[in-house]
Amino acid sequence: MVTCPPAACKNPVVYFDIAADNEPLGRISFEVIYPAENFRALCTGEHGFGYKGSVFFRVIPQFICQGGDIIYNFGGGDKSIYGKNFPDENFKLKHTGPGILSMANAGPNTNGSQFFICTTKTDWLDGKYVVFGKVKEGMDVVKKMESFGSKIGYTSKKITITDCGELK
After folding, report:
1. What are the BP-aspect GO terms (predicted)?
2. 60: which residues sit within 8 A by CB, 6+ positions away?
3. What is the pTM of this model?
4. Which of 77, 86, 121, 141 has the maximal Cβ count within 10 Å?
5. pLDDT in 10s for each residue of the chain, 168 residues
């Protein structure tokens, strides 16, 4: 993992442009808590792969919008810039409310490309999933995405990340 003295580190801001059934919904920008280099690099695609063109495959209203399966687009694939998985960084930050950005995993130290955006406080996830950022702008877009979800997570529209990158 990349480290630097706290005074020298600036939290990167990355973005997703979102569409539902090819109709643009808008932009979501995230402040990514340093050192979440994997997420930042998957937003820019600088390693030859990333989030562009992937979908939010699981949306449960009043819970989460989950995406980041850059292999299969349905939740069965995971890939990081470090290989398949990487360890949990820490559990200092908590799932305190809407807009929290967290890694999805299959158990301890199995982080890859999958992530979720909380649409409500989800404190029962604390200590199990690593929080690494928050929505800076675009919660209205997250709410639109949430409106296409269901109790079991299926979406009524295909929600796609049409573009993504880092804002300088």
Report:
1. protein folding
2. 149, 150, 151, 152, 153
3. 0.93
4. 141
5. 445 545 456 899 999 999 999 999 999 999 998 669 999 999 999 999 999 999 999 999 999 999 999 999 999 999 999 988 999 989 999 999 999 999 999 999 999 999 999 999 999 999 999 999 999 999 999 999 999 999 999 999 999 999 999 998
